[in-house]
């Protein structure tokens, strides 16, 4: 129902309806195309904040265009390594379209009632208080399950009706009818089938009935040129040669991770942190700044032997001698 009369839903529907409009592909992604993409007029408080420096990889942008042009876009399951930009890409897509967005972040203790709603005692009366997803569902807002593989699988089983875009019946019999068009997406480090569980601890395995309701996307870290643009936009004070060297180090670390010699990959988030620490410590003479900043961003998260190997990768691309690392406490060497 477009305007539910159920009293416990009134507070959800007090904000004005966003007005539908269209934007061209060129406006959203910069391609020379006037193909229209559905969105809303600016001004709604639930629209994510747009980043003017955000950089789209051409392949991801084209995948988004295909999804937006689908008359009946299916929910997305976007998997990929930590910090590769999954959630940010979706937030920026919805921000560009000025689309109100409800983001639900996962935790193991989350129960279906936490996001769909629950029966509560209000002024001596038992009423159903709906969760935040129902407004998005009824009004055509974007719906984003962040880190979905952190949910208990039964939470997503309870959302099957939403994923199917079917009417949802509340505990008291009220029926919530979905909007004509809803964009739903989920981000995850894993595919939801147990893959990656050795690295991403406490992730859930979902049954086929849940996974089958999603279109599957797989993201990886961006190509070197895109990653350099991301760092340049985020940290314009950094020298281009420094950024290029950082991105090459990141590529080598990720290769080491895939080969089993590093316990985890370095993320875009880590690279930005490294760059910030480089800028903040640029005038220091008491430490080797490049290595000291790297260790704050990533290196101190691995053991000393791995860190020494990573320092050699930095030395290769920065041509600055790696410092001697002190042996860990209790190491007889």
Task: For this entry, give a set of tags.
333 residues, alpha/beta, Rossmann fold, 2 domains, 5-stranded parallel sheet, two-stranded antiparallel ribbon, 15% strand, globular
What does it look like?
The protein has helices at residues 25-29, 58-69, 86-96, 112-116, 133-139, 153-158, 160-163, 208-211, 224-234, 240-258, 268-280, 289-297, 304-318, and strands spanning 20-24, 36-40, 76-79, 101-105, 117-122, 125-130, 142-146, 168-169, 175-176, 184-188, 215-218. With 333 residues, it is of the alpha/beta class. It folds into 2 domains: 7-218, 3-Layer(aba) Sandwich (Rossmann fold); 224-318. The chain has a 5-stranded parallel beta sheet with strand order 4-7-10-3-11. Helix 10 (240-258) crosses helix 13 and helix 11 packs across helix 12. The protein starts with 19 loop residues before the first strand and ends in a 15-residue tail after the last helix. The model is unreliable at 1-13 (pLDDT under 50).
Rounded to the nearest angstrom, the radius of gyration is: 23 Å
Helix tally?
Answer: 13
Shape: globular
Uncertain stretches: 1-13
Classify the beta-strand content into a percent band. Answer: 5-15%
Helicity level, as a percent range?
25-40%
Number of domains: 2
Q: First CA to last CA: what distance?
A: 71 Å
């Amino acid at each position: 129902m477009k305007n539910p009369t159920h009293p416990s839903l009134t507070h959800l529907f007090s904000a004005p309806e966003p007005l539908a409009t269209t934007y061209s592909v060129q406006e959203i992604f910069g391609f020379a195309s006037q193909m229209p993409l559905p969105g809303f007029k600016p001004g709604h408080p639930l629209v994510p904040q747009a980043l003017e420096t955000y950089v789209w990889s051409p392949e991801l942008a084209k995948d988004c265009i295909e999804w937006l042009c689908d008359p009946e876009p299916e929910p997305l399951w976007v998997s990929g390594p930590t910090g590769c930009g999954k959630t940010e890409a979706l937030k920026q897509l919805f921000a560009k379209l000025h689309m109100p967005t409800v983001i639900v972040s996962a935790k193991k203790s989350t129960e279906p009632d936490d996001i769909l709603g629950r029966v509560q005692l209000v002024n001596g009366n038992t009423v159903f208080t709906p969760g935040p997803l129902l407004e998005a569902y009824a009004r055509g807002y974007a719906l984003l399950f962040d880190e979905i593989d952190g949910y208990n699988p039964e939470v997503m089983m309870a959302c099957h009706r939403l994923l199917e875009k079917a009417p949802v019946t509340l505990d008291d019999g009220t029926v919530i009818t979905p909007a004509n068009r809803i964009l739903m997406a989920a981000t995850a480090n894993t595919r939801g089938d147990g893959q990656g569980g050795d690295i991403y601890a406490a992730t859930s395995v979902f049954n086929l009935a849940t996974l089958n309701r999603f279109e599957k996307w797989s993201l990886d870290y961006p190509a070197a040129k895109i990653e350099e643009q991301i760092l340049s936009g985020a940290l314009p004070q950094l020298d281009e040669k420094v950024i290029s060297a950082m991105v090459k180090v990141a590529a080598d670390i990720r290769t080491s991770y895939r080969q089993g010699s590093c316990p985890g990959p370095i993320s875009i988030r880590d690279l930005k942190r490294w760059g910030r620490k480089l800028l903040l410590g640029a005038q220091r003479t008491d430490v080797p700044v490049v290595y000291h900043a790297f260790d704050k961003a990533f290196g101190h998260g691995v053991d000393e032997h791995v860190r020494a190997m990573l320092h050699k990768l930095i030395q290769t691309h920065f041509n600055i001698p790696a410092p001697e690392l002190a042996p860990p406490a209790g190491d007889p060497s």
